[in-house]
Fold:
Amino acid sequence: MTRIETAPPILLDLPDELLGERVLVRPPHPGDGATVWEAVEESREQITPWLPWVAKTLGPDDCEAAARRGADEGRSAPITLSDACHRLPLSS
Structure:
């Protein structure tokens, strides 16, 4: 049997965003707070069991602060799913 060598995941170069025909997947950016807040509010009951930070998210400023902290610290942030044409968050 041949063994396939693969790089450790940390060494993989991944794109900053994934754009499909109908969806955009990327981390939140500064300025996304209000639209992320709308998506959180619309789905709060359904997403709270899987996303513990939702319980502490009390307004658009909380979402905006999280997006800016992630960008400032250069770290991975949760992803957002957006309509690729309009760049609006997807909702149910």
